[in-house]
Amino acid sequence: MRATRAEAWETLTEYTKSEALLRHALAVEASVGFYARLYGEDEEFWRATALLHDFDYEIHPTLDKHPQDGAPILRERGYPEELIDSVLSHAEHLEMPRDTQLKKVLFACDELSGFVHACGLVRPTGLDGLEPKSVKKKLKQPSFAAGVNRQDVHEGAEELGVELDDHIRFVTEAMRPIAGELGLRQSAD
Ligand SMILES: [Fe+2]
Ligand SMILES: [Fe+2]
Questions:
Q1: What ligand has the least distance to the C-alpha of 92?
Q2: If you average pLDDT over residues 21-35, what whole number do you get?
Q3: Residues 95-106: tens digit of each pLDDT
Q4: Minimum-distance ligand to the CA of 25?
Q5: What is the Å distance from ligand 2's center to 34 Cα?
Q6: From the CA of 110, how far away is ligand 1's center (Å)?
């Protein structure tokens, strides 16, 4: 079975009502979708996986439950094991090997999309004109978006084998078309 984006969105919104979490899901989806296109992979499947990676976070907000207790729900819904396995692998505490390109991309995009989002929120033009240089400068300020794990950001890009500058550029470019949905300001043009 092949998961569709529409099914994943339905499952996500059934379990997730928080706007912040939905925006996070959309930001990660956009980034993972960008990489699927870049690598010539199954974009719809990758997008569905990204949308669902934190689908149970609202009902399982602690790491003794998220995302492992979400997996049986996905299984019951008939999602393919490849999707469930990829969702599980984004959690460092489960210590699962990130042995596919999708797992590497998901992990690499998870924290960085949140960080780029935070960068966009404090700029009058949102993501427009946001350069990797200023994202990296903010990464070095521990108080900025303090919840974002810097080590995961660096490790994610490294595991993926993409230079951090390029990774930041890709994620920013991926999120720009949905800036409005993410609550970010956009320039007039
Ligand atoms: Fe998560
Ligand atoms: Fe996440």
A1: 1
A2: 98
A3: 999 999 999 999
A4: 2
A5: 17
A6: 8
Q: Are 87 and 49 in contact (CB under 8 A)?
A: yes
Cα 150 from chain centroid (whole Å): 15
Query: What pLDDT is stored for residue 188 in this prediction?
Result: 60
Global pTM reads 0.96
Give all strands (DSSP E) within the chain, no chain letters: none
Nearest listed ligand to the Cα of residue 21: 2
Q: From ligand 1's centre to the CA of 2, what distance in Å?
A: 22
Mind listing the pLDDT tens digit for each residue in 124-134?
A: 999 999 999 99
In whole angstroms, how far apart are CA 187 and each of 10, 48, 66, 75, 112? 31, 29, 37, 42, 23
Amino acid symbol at 143: S
Q: Which two tokens stand for residue 34?
A: 């960008």
